[in-house]
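USER: Note each token:
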Amino acid sequence: MKRKAERIDSVVKSLMEGLDKHSNPTAEDIEGIWREIAGKKASSHTKPASLRKKHLIINVDGSSWLYELTLRKGELLSKLKKELGKDKIKELQFRIGEL
């Protein structure tokens, strides 16, 4: 059985994407993804605090942002799962805390 030859750049790209989905995200990765997903305004009032057992905690600087982000929780969680991989995050929690 013969296989069709593939371009090396597509093979490497596919391999890197596969590795990316299986690696553990760093704090810098999470912060960058959070800034992109939350938006410029919201990310200036928030900061990812920890990721433990697939539970991401986001510190928020005030109750109004806590309320707004809680309303957007489903949308934000869905986008985070898409970026980080479904198996990397299950829950998203907001709390008032230090940035």
Q: What stands out?
A: The first helix runs from residue 8 to 22. The chain has five helices and three strands.
